[in-house]
């Protein structure tokens, strides 16, 4: 079986971000022209409990829908919404689940063209899937220090599991590259 060549792409860089991960003009044409697949991720900070409320989830879903449509992603594409910190069960119940309920409502308000997935620890993915019906989970497995990865199984709907990050150097240019395990190349890709 051939391993699919994929590239994760951020749909959005929040104001003030120094990561510069947002899709650039023409980048998707180059990616698809090289035979790669894309898994879109939406992350607007998502590193603190205060980043997660129902209204933020709704707004993020509306923005993610607009961006995905402007980039030409097909109907049914899974957009992975990020929880990029060590959320406890209390955080998940109090804020993460309401955030994803907002994501569901925001995508529904735009005709459900896109579906939501979740990026986060195993426990985050398990809970978001069970309580908001996330289509697929992208597990932040390389974050072994996250308590939500310790003692929790991979969710049944996992599509990708991030296992290691490498730094790639080419002359004076250096960038981080994730090594991800995939379950099924048809899951969550466009």
Radius of gyration: 16 Å
Structural class label: alpha/beta
SSE succession: EHEHEHEHEEE
Strand fraction equals 25-35%
For the residues shown, what is the average pLDDT? 85
User: In which range does the helix fraction lie?
Assistant: 25-40%
User: Largest sheet, if any?
Assistant: 7 strands, mixed
* Assigned CATH superfamily: Glycosidases
Strand order of the largest sheet: 1-2-3-4-5-6-7
Low-confidence stretches: 1-7
* Strand runs, count: 7
User: Can you tell me the CATH topology?
Assistant: TIM Barrel
Alpha-carbon distance between the termini? 19 Å
CATH C-level name: Alpha Beta
How many domain regions? Answer: 1
Shape: globular
Count of separate DSSP helical elements: 4
Task: Label the CATH architecture.
Answer: Alpha-Beta Barrel
Overview of the molecule:
This protein is an alpha/beta fold. The protein has helices spanning 27-33, 54-71, 89-108, 122-132; strands spanning 6-10, 37-42, 78-82, 115-120, 137-139, 158-170, 173-182. The chain has a single domain (6-182), classed as TIM Barrel (Alpha-Beta Barrel). The chain is built from four helices and seven strands; from the N terminus they run βαβαβαβαβββ. It has a seven-stranded mixed beta sheet. β4 (115-120), α4 (122-132) and β5 form a beta-alpha-beta unit. α2 (54-71) crosses α3 and α3 (89-108) packs across α4 (122-132). The two termini are 19 Å apart.
Provide a quick synopsis of the model.
The chain is built from four helices and seven strands.
Q: What are the defining features of this structure?
A:
seven-stranded mixed β-sheet; 190 residues; 4 helices; disordered N terminus; globular; TIM Barrel
């Amino acid at each position: 079986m051939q391993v699919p060549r994929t590239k994760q792409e951020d749909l959005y860089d929040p104001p003030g971000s120094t990561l510069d991960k947002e899709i650039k003009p023409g980048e998707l044409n180059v990616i698809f022209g090289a035979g790669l697949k894309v898994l879109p991720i939406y992350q607007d900070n998502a590193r603190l409990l205060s980043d997660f409320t129902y209204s933020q989830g709704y707004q993020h879903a509306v923005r993610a829908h607009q961006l995905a449509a402007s980039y030409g992603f097909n109907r049914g594409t899974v957009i992975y919404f990020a929880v990029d910190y060590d959320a406890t069960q209390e955080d998940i119940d109090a804020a993460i689940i309401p955030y994803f309920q907002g994501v569901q409502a925001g995508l529904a308000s735009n005709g459900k063209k896109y579906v939501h997935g979740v990026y986060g620890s195993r426990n985050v993915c398990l809970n978001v899937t069970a309580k908001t019906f996330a289509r697929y989970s992208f597990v932040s497995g390389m974050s072994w220090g996250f308590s939500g990865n310790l003692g929790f199984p991979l969710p049944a709907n996992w599509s990708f599991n991030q296992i290691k990050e490498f730094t790639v150097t080419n002359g004076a240019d250096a960038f981080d590259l994730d090594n991800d395990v995939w379950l099924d190349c048809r899951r969550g890709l466009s």
